[in-house]
Amino acid sequence: MSEVVTYKREDQIAYISVNNPPVNALSLPVRQGLEAAFTKFANDNEAKAAILICEGRTWIAGADITEFGKPPEDPWLPKVIHQMEANEKIIVAAIHGTALGGGFETAMGCHYRCAVPSAKLGLPEVTLGLLAGATGTQRLPRLIGVKRALDAMISGAPFSASNGLEWGAVDEIVDGDLRDGATQFTKKLLAANAKPRRISDEEVDGLELNEHFFNEYRNGMAKKTRGFFAPEQIVKCVEAAVSLPYKEAVEREGELFMECMMSSHSVAQRHLFFADRACAKVDDVPKDTPLRDIKKVAVIGGGTMGGGIAMNFANAGIPVVLKEINQEALDRGLEIIRSNYNATVTKGRMSAEQMDQRVGIISGVLDYDDLSDCDLIVEAVFENMALKKEIFGELDRIAKPGAILASNTSTLDIDEIAASTNRPEDVIGWHFFAPANVMTLLELVRGAKTSHEVIATSMAMAKTIKKIAVLVGVCFGFVGNRIFFPYVREAQQMILEGVPPERIDQVAFEWGMAMGPNGVSDLSGLDVLDKVKSEWLDRPDDPALWAVGTKLVELGRLGQKTKAGIFNYAGRTAVPDQVVADLAKSEATRLGIQQLSEVSDEEIIERLMFSMINEGALILEEGIAMRSSDIDVVFVHGYGMPRYRGGPMRYADTVGLSNVVAAMEKYRERYGDMYWTPAPLLKRLAEEGGSFSG
Ligand code: 3H9
């Protein structure tokens, strides 16, 4: 028997245990171990029933994702599950933690399932660009019904043990010790002479289905799943479950699973699964770095950003103090927070009591001295170096020793801000993304003197407030905005060249972006970008840089907030405006920019994406990002790039770096060296046939 799967019989019951930390993933040794253990069970005449149970923090959390993309090695999971199910003696799954993906499929291969109340079950493969390819798409509809199974597989969201009990996926909830409870349950089954109950023998309940069911389901999921490959494949599997005999439908599932597995989408989504976890690791900050206690937080500035930041801490149960300059501004800030929570209550996503609890731990002050007992102070005033330095000078005066002093700056030099204090080791950038209470990304900006303790505590705190934190270095715009700026530059350059802004946005949207670059600029505020430009001291010496935006700001067209920017706005709908086309034309004439007679969709994407990728390569070379996958995490979580593209650097790998360089050379011939000289790292990797993701 392998070390990761053990077999132990006590009287009539065989206990088959999986022990493969950290999450009992179904790697080859586990599959081999399960095959051997269940063969032993079948041949053990003394054993009348088996309990499959897991050690450590969780039940089997799925197939081993690191094995994907490599040639499959026997025994393949569906085979193991069929072998288990075919057993003539009963098998009981005893579930704790998370039974996910292949783990839940393994549980469905058992004849009965019991679970502790805190257990979660689900098929999250869709989040990896996959489907439940070890018979999950065939078994779950049989177990809990077609609609519920589709909902679970298309969302990928796990469900609770009590829902599982209600829906028929769990037979018994075990309070107290799982092994004991599972043993009692199995003894009851034996006493009742229970037979193996095989899901594959059961019919799919088609009562809820009419002839339009699947098309209606597709229409219903279209908006949420736009662009993703796997969801449609999942629906096809369930259609097969309904219309084909089990065996044929399983074969169909296998084919569709392999299509997903080989798709660039799944490669990208699997890359992000690991990227999302890798970014939490900081090589030079030891794991045992002491963490500071954060019991009370202050936020300076009660505007939209400051209010959103405060909500993050209140949501995690941490008291927050909002500091404003006068009572009116403070009242307004607190009112915005209250109305944000109110909206969540109205949508039914929070109870009135929860809202009261959260609002109850947010207080307001006008005086810096009232922040002297705070452990973390986040400054969130507008982008102005002089103002920020003044504030940090005050914080240095009043903050208690050991308090973390954070700035929400989106571009400015953290070292310069830190230099306005006598404790630069306590200063760090905490760059939130708007709306700060919704967006998951947090860029943590490490200054030259930021201490390990402050970095480690900030990383841990980010997790507490449910953010994905990426640690970056100091440069103008850090990682996110620094790659966003060339993206906006190319979008506006194309407008100057006569490409309609709505066409650029439509092409970007169809490529998968949540919004096109011009719509995003209008949403952020063209005035904000213009202000950034004026603070950007070493910006490219180019009069055409963001020239459209600057011109529009001069006309008072600041974006969505003034109902006119690059587009006009009817509510939130962007409507093209001839005024902008005319303005672009006259600006182009003034700046000597040639009009393009024709621009392909391919060129629009290349110019938007490759300009970012090149900046990303520079960022990596300069050590501003620790790894290329961190850049991907930033752009996916903070800027609306779809997960199936994997982020800009992963997308470059998908296109092929030599193709990226070749396209850049083409644009360099047309536009010169300033923007289109391939970064040395990009060039070198392309020549070596390498990639960013290694
Ligand atoms: C599947 O099952 C396909 C089948 O249908 C068909 C097959 C034919 N594999 O997240 P954490 C690592 S697809 C390999 O930080 P938590 C993870 O990278 C799979 N490694 O812990 C991390 O490593 P490190 C369907 C995995 O407590 C460490 O474990 N299943 C896997 O916050 C700890 O992970 C899923 O999609 C894996 N399957 O959350 C579930 N899972 O320490 C994926 C984790 O080096 N997993 N690792 O950074 C999860 O959702 C979470 O890990 C879980 C625990 C909720 C289980």
What this model shows, in words?
By secondary structure, this protein is an alpha/beta fold. It folds into three domains: 258 residues, 2-enoyl-CoA Hydratase, Chain A, domain 1 (Alpha-Beta Complex); 176 residues, Rossmann fold, CATH 3.40.50.720; 206 residues, Orthogonal Bundle (N-(1-d-carboxylethyl)-l-norvaline Dehydrogenase, domain 2), CATH 1.10.1040.50. The protein has an eight-stranded mixed β-sheet with strand order 12-11-10-13-14-15-16-17, with helices on both faces. Strands 1-2-3-4-6-9 form a six-stranded mixed β-sheet, with helices on both faces. Strand 15 and strand 16 form a beta hairpin. The longest helix is centred in the C-terminal third of the chain and has 21 residues. The model has no long low-confidence stretch (mean pLDDT 96). It binds (S)-3-Hydroxyhexanoyl-CoA. The site of (S)-3-Hydroxyhexanoyl-CoA has 26 residues, from strand 5, helix 3 and helix 11.
Features:
single chain; 694 residues; alpha/beta; Rossmann fold; N-(1-d-carboxylethyl)-l-norvaline Dehydrogenase, domain 2; 3 domains; eight-stranded mixed beta sheet; globular; binds (S)-3-Hydroxyhexanoyl-CoA
* Rounded average pLDDT: 96
What is the strand tally? 19
Helix content: 40-55%
Count of DSSP helices? 29
Radius of gyration: 28 Å
CATH first level of the largest domain: Alpha Beta
The CATH architecture of the largest domain is Alpha-Beta Complex
Largest beta-sheet details: 8 strands, mixed
Characterize the overall form: globular
Strand line-up in the sheet with most strands: 12-11-10-13-14-15-16-17
Number of domains: 3
Assess the beta-strand content as a share of residues.
5-15%
CATH superfamily of the largest domain: 2-enoyl-CoA Hydratase, Chain A, domain 1
Present as ligands are:
(S)-3-Hydroxyhexanoyl-CoA
Would you identify the regions where 5 or more consecutive residues have pLDDT less than 50? none
End-to-end Cα distance: 36 Å
CATH-defined topology of the largest domain: 2-enoyl-CoA Hydratase, Chain A, domain 1
Secondary structural class: alpha/beta
